[in-house]
Design brief:
Layout (H helix, E strand, L loop, with lengths): L2 H16 L20 H15 L5 H6 L3 H10 L6
Helix pairs in contact: 1-2
Length: 83
Amino acid sequence: MEEKILNERVFKVISQLMNVPLEQVNEHSSPENIDQWDSLVHMNLILALEEDLKIKFTDEEIAEMIDVKLILKALRSKNMTST
């Protein structure tokens, strides 16, 4: 999957799950700048990404995925993108 397409899919899931406009979601999005992003929503986000992308995250990966940039990094580590 191309990185741009992966980013768009992740941003869309976040936008829908957290009920924020898509244009407000980017690599710098985090609980610090999205008020709706709490621990429960975070777990729902992980589950939604696993379902949407047909992957499974380890507990260690989930613990490190604290913002969009780190979520994308975890997905790249699973070879979800091609260059």
